[in-house]
Amino acid sequence: MRIAVAGTGYVGLVTGVCFAEYGHHVTCVDVDEVKIELMQQGVSPIYEPGLDELMEKNQQRLRYTTDYRSAYQDADVIFIGVGTPEKLDGSANLKYVFAAAEQITQAVVKDCVVVVKSTVPIGTNDKLEVFFEERRSNAAQIHVASNPEFLAQGTAVRDTLNPSRIIIGAEDDYAAQVLKSVYRDFKAPILITNRKSAEMIKYASNDFLALKISYINEIANLCELVGADIEDVAKGMGLDARIGSKFLHAGIGYGGSCFPKDTKALHWLANFHDYEMKTIKAAIEVNDNQKLRMIKKARKYYQSLKGLKIAVLGLTFKPGTDDLREAPSLVNIPILLDEECSVQAWDPIGVANFKKYYPDEVLYCDTIEQALQDTDLCLIFTEWDEVKGLDANAFCQHMKIPIVIDGRNCYALEQFEGTGVTYDSVGRRVVKGKYSSGFGVI
Question: What pLDDT digit, counting tens, does each position of 56-110 carry?
Fold first, then answer.
């Protein structure tokens, strides 16, 4: 089957490459000539484990171009996988979706199915159908279907090749059958529903996971106050099959390209229809506050942060990606800089993107040991394997004052007992070292 994919970001490019892996001929379309040139050279413009290898393996079935007319005119199926960033009011910005739709109307010369894989508000597919009907200039019929993605950055290739489920939202049998043919070799349950239900499934799924994260973070905060241990609590909860153990890892909040904007978009949509989703509103508020927990903890140890030398381990919103969208580092580091702190940061792949925000204000280090050198405080934002593999004594050896505030619970508490390091994590007791709270280091 001949497939075209509009957009070469995390959704579009991964989708196209994985379809090629399953034997389809795929043309990936983007307006960015620099990105297209990179991909034509076999280089992925995004960091995603396993993607470069699949691009090389399937290069005979993959084409990359800015020429949308040549890409769309012969396509049996056109997937729209462009970004839908949030607007200032929290609603989803659909300008890229409709820009792609406009190009499709100019190019198609035969019947085809246009599939929206981007996360879009409920009812968007219906609007696209009207858009195509009003603008098409020939007899070619454009069928519109919804096929939301459920990939996570860092595991996007695996999630796409081996999806947990395939959701097809279609209003006619032709579109449904074409999409079933596209996914004929995928080993996953297929649910066929109407388009609005498919759109809602995406939002409801993401927002439920965001709720789960915010809930366990609130429980973790209360654990600190009453002396309970969040890891034992989460383990006990997860043994209940009705709850499950996934997304019960306490930390400093969710980030990335999906959960933040999708919770805001659904909250906005509900308000637009004069309905308030109180649970979603609460999840957003909890997450915003959670990102500031580490700064609040730091103030327990220092009456003023001014002039401190601070190590930052991890810049990206999670390991396995170079994405900084809604990363806690982008919330906390500006506060540290405003407090006139010296920030020494380490991240294995996120530095280049972070430099776009702060090219000179932060000292970027090649190793964790360099980042820790002579510092007064260490903040852990991302649970990279290199961080989790660090020996507790390294903090003593390299830091001037070994106080570690871990926003990702990378270590067992026992690792720090008797080391002299003060270790303060999320939802667990503080391991007291040479310096403890109460401005003992002033």
Answer: 999 999 999 999 999 999 899 999 999 999 999 999 999 999 999 999 999 999 9
Which residues are catalytic, by number?
258
What is the phi-psi region of residue 247: left when phi exceeds 0, alpha when psi lies from -120 to 50, beta otherwise?
A: left
Q: Residue 12 in contact with residue 79, Cβ under 8 Å?
A: yes
Q: Could you tell me which of 164, 160, 80 has the C-alpha nearest to residue 118?
A: 80
Q: What is the rounded average pLDDT of the residues 215-222?
A: 98
- H/E run at residue 26: strand 25-29
Residue 264's pLDDT band, with cuts at 50, 70 and 90, is very high
Q: Phi/psi of residue 33, each to 5°?
A: -65, -35
Sole residue written with tokens 């989460």? 234
Residues 292-316 pLDDT 10s? 999 999 999 999 999 999 999 999 9
Q: How many CA atoms lie within 13 A of 221 on its CB side?
A: 17
Domains, in order of start, for the chain: 2-193 (3.40.50.720), 202-290 (1.10.1040.10), 293-424 (3.40.50.720)
The Cα 321–Cα 300 span in angstroms is: 32
